[in-house]
Amino acid sequence: MSAATLKRAGYWTMHYAIIALYVAFALFPLYWLFKVSLTPTKLLYSEGVRMWPSRTTWENYGFVLTNSDFPRFFLNSVIVSVSTAVLVTVVASGAGYALSRFRFRGKFWLVGLMLITQMFPLVMLISPIFRIFTPLGLTDSLLGLIIVYTAFNIPFATFLMQSFFDGIPKDLEEAAMIDGAHRFTAFRQIILPLTLPGIAATLGFVFTAAWSELLFALMLISKTDASTFPVGLLTFVSKFSVDFGQMTAAGVLALIPACLFFFLIQRYLVRGLTAGAVKG
Amino acid sequence: MATIDIDGVRKRFGNVDVLHGVDLTIADGEFVVLVGPSGCGKSTLLRLIAGLEDISRGAIRIDGERVNDLAPRARDIAMVFQSYALYPHMSVERNMDYSLRLRKTPAERAREAVEGAAGKLGIDRLLQRKPRTLSGGQRQRVAMGRAIVRTPKAFLFDEPLSNLDARLREQMRGEIKKMHQDLGATSIYVTHDQIEAMTLADRIVAMNEGLVQQIGPPRELYEHPTNLFVAGFIGSPAMNFIDATYRREGQNAFLVVGEKRLALDERDVADGTPVTLGLRAEDIAIDADPEDPGAIEATVELVEPLGLGTIVHVQALGTHIKALSLAVVEHRVGSRIWIRPHPEKFHVFEEATGRRLERKAQFAAELPA
Ligand SMILES: Nc1ncnc2c1ncn2[C@@H]1O[C@H](COP(=O)(O)OP(=O)(O)OP(=O)(O)O)[C@@H](O)[C@H]1O
Ligand SMILES: [Mg+2]
Fold it and tell me: Which residues constitute the domain of residue B89?
């Protein structure tokens, strides 16, 4: 082996070592979550810190699924997150398309306003929102949460979608319009199919944001019936005097829909659909 | 098929004027080529006709009907984009019959139309492929096919061949010409390519800075450019320009270039006017007789054999001049030769305005009506 190949091999080894280190660092808490959820409560304190318990059990999962309010929280979270993700993506697609393609009066200010909404710490907005929502009966309601999440996610999602539309040549919809399509038809039949990766990314991003949101869920909801999963996790703390086994089991279960969701959309996340549209 | 009437059309983007009033009438079945430097507004004019941009002022009429406020889909026009703009998620067949499906053409008829067009363009075996699997030339053909499957009122081409290599471009140029002869469709074609413009056009429209400079058959623009811009833009190699002064002594008119006097016919301009003399490379003979009063001494700077002929770059009259000879040229760089511009082929332009100065006597007779 020559010095150059050795150097190359060394370089790549380093390269992968650093990536592996990072991945391990990022995934370790997840591993720990999973490990604790499988550890029998008795062993949790008696065995000290070990990479793997001497005995594992599924009883935490059983308890969480059958004897707690967790299924209710879970369902609420699914309703809120899916609705929010769909609503936001629909609105952001339209708005992002308009920002990408049209020149209109007030565009500059509109974009500026949208950016400003992203600059406030959300805490500041809780009490006004609470005051508005109470008389409308939107506190203690999933609908109220969906409205808040949708409103807060639309600006960023719009910019995200805009950048995806910007990446699709304008010629394509112009060709479609000359071919005889209405602008909306061109959008639906030509542009939208090419934006699927962007739509998937936006759906995924908003879904995750809504799924893990705690602040508003905590402030606007007090009934167990309408609680979402992150709030539910907190009730584990008080009710079961920090039962780590059950709490982590609930946490692992809560990861499932997010994983499932990304699994479903991952094939759209793969870019490169537009290849071959214009001269390559 | 249709006539297109462009009447005082202006276009501004924000506060930038791009087209300053374009008038152009295109006859049914005519092939009009737009040429002009980058940014002069050719694409903009095409997009106005297609309905992709709003007309700021003036009117466009297709078959006599004012289309200013009609959406692109209602204008029944086909366009071939420089980028081809093929729909990447659709097969070649779907790309080609998209317009027919939008018009709810019966499937049977649509298939016949696609197969007919594909046959003409030699892409029948590509129908099931996706655009990204095609070569540049094949994509170009699909883009053409997409335009010809339906019979639109007019075709618009925005530099359709500029992404192809020279050989392919030549071939497609021939095919476009043949297609136009077959279909007889009204066509507007934008190009940078001199040869495309000369070979395809019934009429060429030379544009500069948002204004039409000259409209006419290719030969007319070539032989009678109305101003310096057209003279310099049309033709390859580009016309030689030489600064001169127009003088008249009694009956004799001549141009003074440095020490040299070149006799010419009288022009309708004052004695002593600064002018620009335009000489096409092929109108300059090399190896002239030194005794000839029209002969000019020159030093060879560069010899470019073309195969067809030779371009000889010389230093003469205080400037660089290109002469095109169809003969084989043996001159070495640095050698001294005599060149002689053909006096009948002098193009004289007023320096201040750039307008062409016609011969006085034949002024009326030479200009076509
Ligand atoms: N949407 C737009 N907004 C602002 N300016 C524009 C727009 N489209 C074109 N222009 C301007 O109009 C002018 C003419 O553009 P156009 O595309 O018609 O030129 P062109 O003659 O087709 O040039 P090329 O040969 O490079 O294609 C340019 O100066 C361009 O910057
Ligand atoms: Mg252009």
Answer: 4-232
Residue of B48, B75, B76, B89 to mutate for A, most A C-beta atoms under 10 A: B89
Please say if the pLDDT value at position A19 is more than 60: yes
**How many distinct structural domains can be found in chain B?**
2
Residues B208 and B334 in one domain: no
B162 close to A (CB below 8 A): no
For A195, nearest residue in chain B (alpha carbons) = B89
> B164 in a domain, yes or no?
yes
User: Among A193, A200, A198, which residue's Cα sits nearest to residue A166?
Assistant: A198
pLDDT (0 to 100) of residue A238: 62
Which among B177, B198, B232 is the end of a domain?
B232
Q: Write down the pTM of the prediction.
A: 0.81
Number of A/B CB contacts below 8 angstroms equals 86
Nearest to B132 among A169, A182, A276 (CB): A276
Contact flag B79-A171 (C-beta cutoff 8 Å): no
Ligand minimally distant from the alpha carbon of residue B20:
1
Å from CA of A161 to ligand 2 middle = 28
The DSSP H or E segment spanning B204 is strand B203-208
Residue among A176, A178, A277 whose CB faces B131 most closely: A277
**pLDDT one-digit tens code per residue, A143-169:** 999 999 999 999 999 998 998 899 899
